[in-house]
Design goal:
It catalyses: a (2E,4Z)-dienoyl-CoA + NADPH + H(+) = a 4,5-saturated-(3E)-enoyl-CoA + NADP(+); a (2E,4E)-dienoyl-CoA + NADPH + H(+) = a 4,5-saturated-(3E)-enoyl-CoA + NADP(+). Helix 1 crosses helix 7, helix 3 packs parallel to helix 4 and helix 4 runs parallel beside helix 5. The chain has one domain: NAD(P)-binding Rossmann-like Domain (Rossmann fold), CATH 3.40.50. A 6-stranded parallel β-sheet has the order 3-2-1-4-5-6, sandwiched between helices. It has 246 residues and is α/β, with parallel strands linked by helices. Bound molecules: hexanoyl-coenzyme A (HXC).
Length: 246
């Protein structure tokens, strides 16, 4: 599909994406790169990262991979430092790292609940918190009057109630709340735009194949357009938000 945006809309910008090596995160990495950004991808699985970076290079996108877990503050610091070392600045932070599995609440251990909160909610906060000094106006490589932007990837599971997703629903509700608080505080203080994207079911992703196997999503009520969303849809929303178009 042809992008509705000019190919240089993100020229000169640098992006860091957690969970940017696979699924929706990778498509956002790719589209930010195809629209001119340099891209640093953080993820837990080295082989996945390596193939993501190789694919970005094939498109001619300047890209690095940094192995790490958003639950570990040192990994987050290292990912940010590697991004600055390689590209000199940070303009766009995308928090796409997430953990998920289907489990009835009755069978979920408190540690299982905590694990997903740690990845999705605490991880998002940790990365935002450590990235602040690079994103704020006047940060490395940045004009004194201009801050960067944060995009947090959430979900729609928690808008009502979703079977066997108590942990993820709680975690994504917290992500949405973090997005609003940071938009208020860091928008006011540092000219950083903080936005969220809440994808519904998106085809060809681990989320849908793990959480909605078979025809679980075939009802018209769940999908008024009678088709799954596409990773491209989400990536285009990210390009728009990252571009500063207004
Ligand atoms: C019940 C489970 C479980 C399962 C793990 N646990 N998997 N409980 N059912 N299937 C419990 C464990 O028993 C343990 O608790 C605790 O969780 C930690 O498990 P670990 O395996 O030690 O954790 P870890 O290795 O850190 O892995 C975390 C993980 C992750 C969340 C399980 O590996 C994972 O799922 N990764 C997949 C990433 C993914 O699918 N991303 C796409 C997200 S899609 P105890 O008590 O035993 O110690 C998305 C979109 C949502 O978010 C919207 C879609 C429509």
């Amino acid at each position: 599909m042809e992008s509705p945006f000019k190919p240089d809309v993100l020229k000169g910008k640098v992006a860091l994406l957690t969970g940017g090596g696979s699924g929706i995160g990778f498509e956002i990495s790719r589209q930010l790169g195809l629209h001119g950004a340099s891209v640093a991808v953080m993820g837990r699985r080295k082989p996945v990262l390596d193939s993501a970076v190789a694919a970005l290079h094939l498109h001619g996108i300047p890209a690095i991979g940094v192995e790490g877990d958003v639950r570990k503050r040192d990994d987050v610091v290292r990912a940010l430092e590697s991004t600055i070392k390689r590209f000199g600045r940070l303009d766009i932070l995308v928090n796409a790292a997430a953990g998920n599995f289907l489990v009835p609440a009755e069978d979920l251990s408190p540690n299982g609940f905590r694990t997903v909160i740690d990845i999705d909610s605490v991880g998002t906060f940790t990365v935002c918190h450590e990235a602040l000094k690079y994103l704020k106006k006047g940060g490395p490589g940045k004009e004194p009057s201009c801050g960067g932007t944060i995009i947090n990837i959430s979900a729609t599971l928690h808008y009502t109630a979703t079977w066997y997703q108590i942990h993820v629903s709680a975690a994504k509700a917290a992500v949405d709340s973090i997005t609003r608080s940071l938009a208020l505080e860091w928008g006011t203080d540092y000219d950083i735009r903080v936005n969220g994207i809440a994808p519904g079911p998106i085809g060809d992703t681990p989320g849908v194949s793990k959480l909605a196997p078979g025809d679980a999503l075939s009802s018209r009520e769940q999908m008024p357009l009678f088709k799954l969303g596409e990773k491209w849809d989400i990536a285009m929303a990210a390009v728009y938000l990252a571009s500063g178009a207004d």
